Each structure stands twice: as C-alpha cells, then as structure tokens.
Amino acid sequence: MIVLLSLQVFDDCEQNYPRILQHNDSLQSSTATEKGTAQYLLCGIRGSLSQVFDIQIPNITVPINIGVTQIDFSLTDIKIFNLQVPELDVKLNEQNIVQLYLPNCDVDLKFQWKFQQSSYPYTTDSGSGTVVLRNGTMSGSAISEVDGVKCPGHMKVNVIKSNLEYQSLKIQLQGGQSWIFQSLIDIIMEAVQVQIAGFISSTMSAGFVKLANDVFEDGRREMNYTNNKFIKDERYTDRVQIGSRFATLLFSGQTYLKENLTDEYITEFGWFGEIGRQQQLLLYNYINRFLTNMVQRLVTSGICFKGYRFNSCFVHFSQIKIIIIYLLTTHTYLIDQVYQHLNFELNQLNNSK
C-alpha cells in the first residue's frame, strides 16, 4: 500500500502577501513515504520517457593510438531510441538527500561514426552503429532547491552523484570499408566501449534530472475559484524536506483576491477552472466528482503535477458522501465535517504501466 498524507490550511485573503515565498509562508504540505515517493517518481518518469528520445546528446571523439599513427574515432547524431525503466527504489535520510536506485534498465542507442587518420595517408571512413545495454542499474544521489529570488516558486532537482553498472554492453558498427577499419576493429571497439559506458551513465543521469524536473515543474501556479475571482497559490516555498523515510513538499496554499495580483508567476489558467457558486442542494454531484479527483491526487502524489500523465497510476474509489456546512467568504469550499462516512478503496497500482 502506498501512503501519502496531505495537510491543507486555508486562511483569509491577504492582498499584500509577499510575492517572494519562503519556508514560513507554507500553508500546504504533502508528505509521502519512501514507497509512495518511488511510485510517484516512477509514474512521472514513465509518463515522460518520450522526452528522453529528444535529448540533444553531444558528440564523442576517442583518440586511438596505433603505433606510428593515430586515428580520431567520432560518434555523432547519437540518439536514445529505447529506454526501459521497470522499477525504482528510493531511500530517504535526514540530510535532504534522496538516494535513487533504478535496477534492470535497458538502453538502446543509435549513432553515426567516422574516423580520421591523423597522418599520411589520412585515411577516413564512416558508417552507423548501435549500442545495446542490458540489465543496467543506475544509482545516484539527488538534492532539490528553490531559488526564491531568481525563480520563486520553481523546484529544481540536481544529481550530485551517479553510477551505472551493467551486465551486458554490446556495440555494433555497420559500414566501414577501409583496410584500417577492418584490421583494427577490435582495438577500436575496446577503446570506444570504455568511453560509451561513461557516456551512457552521464546521459542517463542528465535524462533523469530532466524527467524529475519535468515531473515537479508543470507551470501551474494557482487554482481558480468563483469565476476566476479568487485563487489559491500553488507555488513551492522550499526544497523537498527529507526526513527519516519520508519526504514533504511545501506549498504556499494562500488564497488571494485576483484583481490585486500583479505577480508574473500567477497565470490566468487553473487546474480545475472555475467553481461556480450554486445552491448547496445542487452541489452534490459536482463536489463528489471534485473530491474523488482530489483524493486521487492526494494518494497519487499529494499534488497532481502533470496530472494528465498519471491516469494509468490513479486508484479508484467508491462513492463519497458529503455535506457542505460552510462556505468561506472567498467562496472556496471548506468541508468541516464528513457526513456519516467517507469510504474509499485503494486498488493495487498497475506497475506494468
């Protein structure tokens, strides 16, 4: 079972609330266990894997000495065309560092190669190639940060240490008609393999940093209420807070009268759009759908960054019965009491998707 906890505190609108947020401005938090954090990140990574295929990978040039001469062997147009991440494990400690383990990864790359002899007769050759890595284990340490001055409300993730171990790494080179290539192919393969192993490690590390930042950064800064008149600030106020086997995300959660806002990070769209004010007796169906969606978000990730990518990870719930007993002056709905019961069932997440 994945356990995620969420606490939301609503306060009165403060028209002059400071726009550069800090830790003490946090009125909303979302806390996840190690297993919950791992599942959330894994869902986000799987949903964003297609972006890895578009990463611009720098060229590689390997100088190879062959007695009295040298050849420069280059790999260009390197593309990842297959990346499988079946599982992810997370270890959390109290030093704000997240330990990530991604076992049983498969990676396939394709590239163009060429070499240039550095002395007479200056032989050149070229072709294409593939790299097939199987049963790789990527591990690393990551930290997060929020720069309240330069990028208020933005979360950034950086990998401070990474390592790649693998059981099988095969390089296949196609083309190549010159006598140098044909006679030295084993030497070339041995020299290139060492470089490629380190290259894949750094590329995967950069790729997962990109994916993690994409998971945490969806551009959403607000939630709209009452014909877009009031909003709730959804920006981060601090980096991820790491405790012993749990992680907490901190948000503003502050409500505002929108007409008094000039902040460039507050945008005109909201995740749910507007919630119109209606008679309480007519609210049941809408609020029922709203709460079901909300609880799904809380269980899945605490806050639904990139929520549309997590459809395959959402759990399903039985009917939720509620009664609205009070509406805030900001027309934000506050449910003080759940009438009779709030029943929901968690279905096992589909880890194969």
UniProtKB/TrEMBL annotation:
GO terms for molecular function: lipid binding. Pfam families: LBP_BPI_CETP (PF01273). InterPro entries: Bactericidal_perm-incr_a/b_dom (IPR017943), BPI/LBP_pln (IPR045897), Lipid-bd_serum_glycop_N (IPR017942). SUPFAM superfamilies: Bactericidal permeability-increasing protein, BPI (SSF55394). It comes from the Eukaryota. Residues 55-196 form the Lipid-binding serum glycoprotein N-terminal domain. PANTHER family: LIPOPOLYSACCHARIDE-BINDING PROTEIN (PTHR46801:SF2), OS06G0309200 PROTEIN (PTHR46801). This is Lipid-binding serum glycoprotein N-terminal domain-containing protein. It comes from Hexamita inflata.
